[in-house]
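Q: Convert this sequence to structure tokens.
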Amino acid sequence: MFNDLFSLKGRVALVTGGSRGIGKMIAAGFLAQGAAKVYITARKAGPCEATAKELAAEYGGECIALPIDISTVAGCDKLAGEIVKLEPKLDILVNNAGAAWGADFDEFPESGWDKVMNLNLKTPFFLTQALATPLRAAATADRPAKVINIASIDGIFVNPMETYSYAASKAAVIHLTRRMATRLIKQNIVVTAIAPGAFASDMNKAARDHSDEVATRVPSGRVGTDEDMAGAAIYLASRAGDYVVGATIAVDGGIVYANAGIKGEAWD
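A:
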């Protein structure tokens, strides 16, 4: 009954923003669990192609670079068109590509708002829409297709940093995940989300460059590892996660759900 519960053998996946950070962790995990092909995207061709070669050499399977800017609907359509040319079916889509912007409230620019909202919120919806045909072609009741949106714990709790559009976009992704799940589960496409906490990446330089300090603010006492992120994505992408629909899993060492909150005197 429980054979291959976490296996991704034979499956075809697309991971956006897959050349580095969380996307690279997830792509590596999928290949390690037997995925037949993992396509990764990024704006910059060099790093995307280098990561694809690195992961294919380390884990086996095929890792294919598709360097395309998906910050616009036209870019989403272009990527979907490339996938459709190459694959009749797509088993797994991970909407991971993202951006952040920090600025003082009085100085926060429209450009920083629009850049983050477009890539973090608009792109996951329109890319999933553009890839609906190969996702539906892969989806069955016994083996549903999967869409995994990468949100953030900043969409669940209030980060003290002034990253207004980032926090708002990630909160919206969490609710968008529920709404998309409601519609797509009827076609055997399971939509879920992961809300990462502190993982070392170019987007989270604090966790990357000052992990010991950041770890003091994490209940489990450390920042996340590649295995932590890959494990959550593998769970949701595999048979093990087939009955998890519309949920967002916080992978954060307890920051959101195992923290006492306000420090000091106990409330009466």
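The longest strand covers residues 189-196.
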